[in-house]
């Protein structure tokens, strides 16, 4: 008797979940099907979309004729370096905030947080002026300075809390072996924070991968533009070919999906430090 | 072992970043090429148009001016205004830009643009250009740009639907348009008159003006008494009446189908649009030719005449450019007959140069004649620096009226008062 009702509820739950998945995935499938059409200046109707024959013509056109490969590589370089940079600097400063004592620590930390609350659009002119005075307009270095500078704040905030949950006692094993602060950071804190680092990596990557406004402001050369800018160029002043827009968008989200798959195992895990120290 | 792998990866990517940074900063030094003056030109041409610019305009200009080189940058529309503002504030704006006609006075007020009245040969150039597009460059006693191309919207009908309700020719008056729409909707069309939206004045001004409405006085200094005049209220009431009767297509308030689809499939009787409707759709493979399934004519006449809205782009020179002479050479050259003809014939963009607009080869484009005719009576949107703010107020109240949340008279009174307040700040 009990088994039966269990099964019944299981079916209900699964039915609801599958229904939910279908609803969420439907626009996405519609989008994929639209890319199989030849030209779609007005959004196509369902009967056109569902009779479309799968082909990769639009993808080929976007990739080769619109030189998407170039913007793709540009973006990969920009977002990759920005991700590594903000994670590395962020984790180091989070370590400092979590474990070191120094004057005005909390004040500095608050100042860090405060910069997160300024909307990007307001900051763009002063940021641009600074980058311009440094002579870094139209260089990726200028872009990285802004991206990493912005990313460090978020990852510091996030990782500080995580580092504080790691038992201090673990450090002693390193100290006994004669290691210093750097060893502790590198061999204890980083490996134990992989779940948090993985999560931050996803955020840091997709945040800069999608970023449009700052990139357009700093990068002046068409050949150095990043993917989101190239994507926007498909939006015409008076009309857009949605088949190409969607094909381009799909190409643009592939790396985000890959990064997500790589790091998602870490996404929900808690720390590795439970049970590391005997109570 | 694992940590070593991680540190290796980190080191590798840091190394890569340094190399890349080194490369990119050495690239950026390429400004001057020998003795040539390099002009930085931002534009927002579409794809077809950019092709003409790169393949025909650039070589022609550089051949005539061997000492000047054009550096063309196509900018995306999204967030463009902020881009220009950041450029101006950071002293990194281009030398020349092709910008929407409604932006010029706003940037002129900011002090970002060069006044052209003093430039060599300005008066002669001005004489060769159409007056209405030229007037969109005027701000505070001076001209801050030259009109590069102009456009307007005309009425485009689905031929079959129109004939099925007994009109062999496009409606000439607003009464006829109303009558034809009523019959078409009764016969099953999803919409008669397709006002494309309520988000910007560009969408509904042709109807508002043609029905007798007005925005401001002739000097653009006062909205009260004009935007809320008896005629304006009546015009808006007529549009509301159409909407309540179901004559206006669902697209106006965000419904489906879109205007191009609606007209192609005969779901809508009429839409209004610019020349790009034809030039884009004619270039589409696997689609019906729009010339086959449409009839087109100027906006039907109402109490205010046949009034469409002027759009287009102007060429401006930025104040902090250090190559103003070369920039002026290019600006002037772009408005001369030859360049205007190349652009007009190649893209269907309507020339602002009087002679080029009458060029037989240009007029051969089948749809162009009605647009040129419509331009004679079309009106510009109020050329004031505060326009985008004023437009926001008007548009908000228009939408409220059409959604039945506000009374026309009350809405226009309110918008006029707010517009005057913005103007007098």
Automatic annotation (TrEMBL), chain A:
CDD domains, per database record: TM_PBP2
The membrane topology term of the UniProt record is: Multi-pass membrane protein
**Entry's Gene3D superfamilies?**
MetI-like
Transmembrane stretches, start-end: 12-33, 71-97, 109-129, 141-163, 184-205, 242-263
Record keywords, A-Z: Cell membrane, Membrane, Transmembrane, Transmembrane helix, Transport
Listed Pfam families = BPD_transp_1
Query: Can you name a GO cellular component term?
Result: plasma membrane
Where's it found, cell-wise? Cell membrane
**GO annotation, biological process:** transmembrane transport
Database matches in InterPro entries: MetI-like, MetI-like_sf
Ranges for domain ABC transmembrane type-1 come to: 72-263
Which family is this sequence assigned to? Belongs to the binding-protein-dependent transport system permease family.
Q: What is this protein called?
A: ABC transmembrane type-1 domain-containing protein
Automatic annotation (TrEMBL), chain B:
GO terms for MF: maltose binding
Q: Which domain of life is it from?
A: Bacteria
Q: What are the GO cellular component annotations? A: ATP-binding cassette (ABC) transporter complex, substrate-binding subunit-containing
Q: Which residues belong to the signal peptide in this entry?
A: 1-21
Which keywords does UniProt give here? Signal, Transport
One of the GO BP terms on file: maltose transport
Task: Enumerate the Pfam families for this protein.
Answer: SBP_bac_1 (PF01547)
Q: What is this protein called?
A: ABC transporter substrate-binding protein
Q: Which PROSITE patterns match?
A: PROKAR_LIPOPROTEIN (PS51257)
Q: Which family does it belong to?
A: Belongs to the bacterial solute-binding protein 1 family.
């Amino acid at each position: 008797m009990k088994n039966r009702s269990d099964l019944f509820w299981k079916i209900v739950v699964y039915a609801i979940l599958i229904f939910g998945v279908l609803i969420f995935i439907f626009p996405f499938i519609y989008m994929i099907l639209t890319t199989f059409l030849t030209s779609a200046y007005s959004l196509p109707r369902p009967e056109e979309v569902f009779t479309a024959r799968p082909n990769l013509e639009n993808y080929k056109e976007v990739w080769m004729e619109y030189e998407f490969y170039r913007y793709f590589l540009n973006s990969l370089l920009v977002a990759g370096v920005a991700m590594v940079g903000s994670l590395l600097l962020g984790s180091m400063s989070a370590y400092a905030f979590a474990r070191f004592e120094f004057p005005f620590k909390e004040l500095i930390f608050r100042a860090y947080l405060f910069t997160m609350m300024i909307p990007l659009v307001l900051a763009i002119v002063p940021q641009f002026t600074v980058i311009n005075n440094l002579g870094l307009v139209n260089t990726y270095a200028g872009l990285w300075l802004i991206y990493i500078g912005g990313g460090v704040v978020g990852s510091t905030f996030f990782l500080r809390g995580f580092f504080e949950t790691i038992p201090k006692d673990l450090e002693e094993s390193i100290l006994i072996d004669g290691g210093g602060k750097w060893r502790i950071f590198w061999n204890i804190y980083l490996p134990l924070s992989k779940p948090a680092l993985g999560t931050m990596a996803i955020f840091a990557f997709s945040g800069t991968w999608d970023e449009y406004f700052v990139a357009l402001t700093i990068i002046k050369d068409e050949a150095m533009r990043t993917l989101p800018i190239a994507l926007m160029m498909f939006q015409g002043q008076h009309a857009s070919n949605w088949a190409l827009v969607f094909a381009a968008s799909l190409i643009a989200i592939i790396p985000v999906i890959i990064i997500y798959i790589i790091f998602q195992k870490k996404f929900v895990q808690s720390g590795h430090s439970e049970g590391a120290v005997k109570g | 072992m694992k940590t070593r792998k991680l540190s290796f990866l980190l080191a590798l990517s840091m190394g890569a970043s340094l190399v890349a940074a080194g490369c990119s900063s050495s690239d950026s030094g390429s400004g001057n090429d020998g003795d040539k003056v390099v002009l930085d030109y931002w534009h927002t041409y579409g794809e077809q148009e950019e092709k003409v610019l790169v393949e025909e305009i650039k070589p022609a200009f550089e051949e005539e001016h061997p000492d000047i080189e054009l550096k063309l940058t196509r900018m995306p529309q999204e967030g463009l205004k902020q881009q220009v503002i950041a450029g101006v504030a950071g002293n990194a704006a281009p030398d020349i830009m092709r910008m929407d006609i409604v932006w010029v006075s706003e940037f002129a007020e900011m002090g970002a643009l060069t006044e052209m009245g003093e430039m060599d040969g300005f008066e002669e150039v001005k004489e060769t250009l159409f007056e209405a597009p030229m007037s969109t460059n005027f701000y505070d006693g001076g001209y801050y740009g030259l009109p590069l191309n102009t456009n307007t919207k005309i009425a485009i009908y689905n031929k079959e639907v129109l004939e099925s309700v007994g009109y062999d020719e496009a409606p000439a008056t607003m009464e006829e348009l109303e009558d034809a729409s009523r019959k078409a909707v009764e016969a099953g069309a999803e919409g008669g008159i397709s006002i494309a939206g309520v988000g910007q004045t560009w969408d509904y001004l042709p109807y508002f003006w043609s029905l007798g409405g007005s925005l401001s006085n002739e000097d653009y200094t006062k909205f009260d008494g004009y935007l809320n005049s008896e005629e304006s209220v009546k015009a808006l009431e007529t549009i509301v009446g159409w909407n309540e009767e179901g004559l206006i297509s669902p697209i106006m308030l965000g419904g489906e189908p879109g205007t191009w689809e609606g007209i192609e499939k005969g779901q809508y009787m009429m839409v209004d649009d610019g020349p790009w409707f034809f030039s884009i759709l004619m270039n589409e493979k696997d689609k019906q030719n729009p010339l086959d399934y449409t009839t087109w004519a100027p906006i039907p006449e109402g109490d205010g005449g046949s009034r469409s809205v002027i759009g287009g782009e102007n060429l401006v020179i930025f104040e902090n450019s250090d190559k103003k002479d070369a920039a002026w050479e290019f600006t002037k050259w772009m408005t001369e007959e030859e360049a205007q003809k190349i652009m007009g014939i190649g893209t269907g963009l309507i020339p602002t140069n009087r002679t080029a607009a009458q060029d037989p080869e240009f007029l051969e484009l089948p749809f162009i004649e009605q647009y040129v005719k419509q331009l004679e009576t079309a009106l510009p949107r109020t050329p004031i620096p505060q326009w985008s703010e004023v437009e926001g107020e008007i548009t908000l109240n228009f939408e409220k009226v059409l959604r039945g949340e506000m009374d026309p008279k009350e809405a226009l009174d309110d918008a006029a008062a707010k517009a005057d307040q913005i103007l007098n700040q």
